[in-house]
Protein 1
Amino acid sequence: MKPLVVIRPQPGNAATVAAARALGLDVRGFALFAVRPVDWSPPPPDSFDAILLGSANAVRHAGPALAAYRGKPAYAVGAATGEAARAAGLDVLAAGAGGIAAVLPALRSGHCRLLRLAGRERVALTPPPGASIRERVVYASEPLPLPPPLAELLERPAVVMLHSAEAARHFSRLCDGHGIRRGRIALAALGPRVAHAAGEGWAALAAAATPDETALLALARQMCQNRGG
């Protein structure tokens, strides 16, 4: 069985490592990003109807300003983001899967003015007819250098999980910059957009059946057990 490498930032890295270990995988965690807060100007609570959250990092790093929005309706991507939003006092009306755009159909009547709290690298959103989206960047994922133990591990076949297009591009640059051969590394991506960002030349490159952690772990497990590419 090939080892599995998780490169997403903390605390998600530790959560994914634990879940992969529970599946019996030989998993190693190397966070190749550090998530840091970004100074932002919070709009008045009465200037928007609901909040859009594409990551729990938006809640973790929004800072004290988020307290002014307690009780405001919120739409989140995934259970973890929804839990973080509830803990911050937001009224989570939907916590869907499949990316932030997949949450938009769940908007309730009257929620036309949306405030999106997001990371510096984010997917462009087109608001539904009659709605508007105001964006505030509240955090940034800063890329980190390749740790020597990971460089050593990648000298033999391995599977790497990619949770974002940003991670795919950063990992690709690190491999090329350190002379690590793509042809011995398999990549398990959260979705087609993430897979496309990784480029070509890998031993294997596949996207999860659905863009969620469960499907990505299932794909990674299959790739780790595959004796071929």
Protein 2
Amino acid sequence: MATGFQVTFDCLNVDRMATFWAVALGYIKQPPPKGHDSWEAFATAVGIPEFEWDKMSAVVDPDGGGPRLLFAKVPEQKTVKNRVHLDVNIGKSVPPEQRHDAVQAHVEKLVEAGGERMETIDEHGDYWVVMRDVEGNEFCVQ
């Protein structure tokens, strides 16, 4: 049996990152625990001081299949290239002749959400776009 995991991003603005990656992956922001109308209500109920409410956020696969992405607030900005990155496989679920258009449509949606297109690769039958998220983390849409 495989071991479950989550992917954690250090970032400056947890809500902005959660919002962007929810769009990128078709995820949703993680709902608050049962019995609480909001994360603020939960935080109040368990005694988390208000000045700490922006320290974390998460997005989850609404179908429960993909890993949770956690966004943890840190004081420093990203300074070097990622050693690990995500590949968003938007075009893998469509016929090859539609892949280019599917990737381009998703890239445009991510640019509107604050992402940045860096480079387009079209070689040997493969097509992908290298991008940066709202805090400069590199990833690919393929």
Protein 3
Amino acid sequence: MFKPTRILVPTDMSDHSLRAIRLGFDIASKFEAEVFLLHVIQNPVQECVLEYCLNEDLIEALKVEMFESSRKGMRQQLSRFPWIDADAVSVDVRTGIPYEEILTAAEEHEIDLIVIASLGATGLAKYLMGGVVRQVLLGAKCSVLLTK
């Protein structure tokens, strides 16, 4: 019988992700598994527009603010489930290509189950399974559970 011990739940802060978080924690509580919550910032800061570029201090301040805002958003998502001990959850924010960062995190943390929403926050989500999810399914070395 499959018994996950380390579960990764990527979130894009959408309502679909909330369903994945709930399911991930339901599974974790049943099997006493550890949960890792991950958010990936795809385009952190556009440094230049036409001929105008931001200075490095401002760019760094904006990046720090984005990371703090993302962590706060993830904590707010967790607060919607009062039965979850938010302090026991590993919360990670990364920048990069979402599916690559999800797969990298899965390998780094030796994840045996990824619980991910089949639809994301984009407008096309209602028509197609997300490109991120497709790439995670193709590249994952562990089990992947899609939520609707």
Protein 4
Amino acid sequence: MSDHPAPAPLPLLLIVDDDPLIVDSLKYFLGKEFVIVSAVTRGEALQRLEQQEPKPVAALVDLGLPPLPHRPDEGFALISELLARVPDIRIVVLSGQNDAANARHARVLGAADFVAKPADPRHLLGLLRQLLAVGKETAGVPETPAAADALLIGASAPMQKLRLQLRQYANAPFPVLIEGESGSGKELVANALHHLSERTGRPYFALNCAAIAPSLVEPTLFGHAKGAFTGATGARAGYFEDAADGTLFLDEIGELPLDLQPKLLRVLENGEYQRVGETQSRTSRTRVIAATNRDLKKEVREGRFRADLYHRLSVFTVAVPPVRELGDDRLLLLDHFRNEFARQFAVAPFTLSDAARQRWLDYAFPGNVRELRNIVIRLTTKHPAAAIGREELEDELDEGETPAAAPRMELPEEPAAFDTLALDHLRAMGSLGAQGDFSLDRQLRQWERAYINAAQQLAQGNLSQAAKLLGVNRTTLYNRIETLSRNDSRTDS
């Protein structure tokens, strides 16, 4: 019998590309350091993700995927979906669409870096090693309330308000709903809320509701009896049981299956739940913290989230401010991450020129703290100990150039034009006896879809240009397109 410990299992790498030659080549060069799973389409990649445990630590993603291989839309959507399911995954975009605007937008969505094809596998391997050496976003678990409070970096009014709310709500036994945009640090806030409370020495469990197959959510939360379903070879406790009188953080709560929501409501109301396959009721004293980047009130109106569960979860609501509202806190975040990654990479930190520093303050960071953090990682890697000017910084930001002859959309100048149109439409509906068929939400979605389609046509498919025509950020436009697409899919089904 050998005294040598068994070697650690290789980490999992997801490769999503529709070119079999590229996939085979990457498997050959990277297979010694990773277990590799591949997929051709976005849907297949998400299916592979559900089947894998543990989850991939990194992903190489092509932007041009079927059924739109000549556009970046599928790749952009996959970046957002991977991060929603596995927040710590490191994504490298590996694309033949070597467009600077696409590269910048991929980074805003959360990609760690962008590598144009054809890529040197040795360069990719070095890049993956470096990305995986970087610590997680939460920077460890705080050991004291003071340490938890210190993790929330910033002195701006929104950050002071956030700290005050966390101190006020920390010891209350009621649920807390954390709202905020993608990448704004909701998990960090949940962690701080737990460690600021009297439960700090008790268990803390976190479940990303988007990262697990819907059929597995119930046994994961509540546990299961032996033989409750295929593969249940023994009884097992769930998160509510394991968390005991500690804290359970439910991230992406808007993804919780509708048929499971009454069972979560029951736990929140009286502490009772049952393991799958059992009739015996159990009792939980766990404090629940939930988080979402969705508008749950809208989800309730559209029938995708129970109103009673929403009101129970939102006894206390905390709004995590987006980075664009933090003012000079952007410089404090810069200093924090710059020093942290310089230490991790064993290099001297970079500095910003006055012009670059002002550009940093002017930039909105649509990808929030995740984007800011990734920018600092790339700058630390590319420019250690260097003085970075505005031009070098501009390469990392997602604000495309506006052509001199940009097309212009002709919009009605007077609100009265819309009033008249709406009045005529409703009168026509009334005369046809079809009032019951009218839906304001559906009508607004149709208008939104029409304007987005018109802007894309005028901009000849350039998403940055379409966003400028509509007066929104490119990330905002992309998110709205995704929302409309999800609504269409739900309607079709």
